[in-house]
Amino acid sequence: MRNLVLSLSTLMLFNFVHAQWTTDSSGALFTTQTLRIGEYNTGKNPYRMWYEPSADHFYFAMKNNTDKSVFSVSYNDASTYMALKNRLGSDLFKVGILGSDTSMFLHMPYSDSRLVIGSTGSYLLSEGHKLVIKNGSAKVEGNFFSTGSIGIGTMSFVDGADTYKLSVEGKVRAHGVKVYTDWADYVFEESYKLPTLEEVEKYIKENGHLKDIPSAEEVEESGIDLGEMNKLLLQKIEELTLYTIELKKEIEVLKSKID
To answer: What pLDDT shows up at residue 20?
Structure first.
């Protein structure tokens, strides 16, 4: 251990002596020449740290025993970055600027990377979330895009044969909801077979609800599709309209006979 300390001290003294050092008004010591700390080997270029002001380049690295950088900070005309790497020298976490001073990036390229805010890295680890914010909120002043599903109060997105993009455990409040679906104007087509009122009465007595409309039990178990339900309700309204027109015609005939 003493030999190691002595060797490092000798190396630092060598660098110190062979650099041109200056003291500013505050007493700080600095040099305008290249500063290298670590093994000197231009073929392998394993410097732990160097600074070359003439090239506008700064680099600092911590390396392991296989000469792989595990932490580094770099600055030059093309980019600025700070990186944390694994034992093989591959990025685990990197933040930096490419080219323009406003083109900033942060990446964690491994597929099992995760970011936890407000707790430790093991928090909710078994649930597999990539981003966890504990006891806080997030505000996005822009668009939010997801190619998967979004759950609020739930992580269940499957209901029967359907998989939903938005699943909410609780009530939803909005000023408006727009649903795209087919509509029920087929009731007014010549080919539509309008049930007689006798057929309607018979179906109600046998089933306890209107034909084509789900029963109370079905709704309680499976819920309703807003678009489909509105279409079915319109279908019944249009059927009622046709019944009303027919009744009016029958009333007119009866009135004419009375007159």
So the answer is: 63
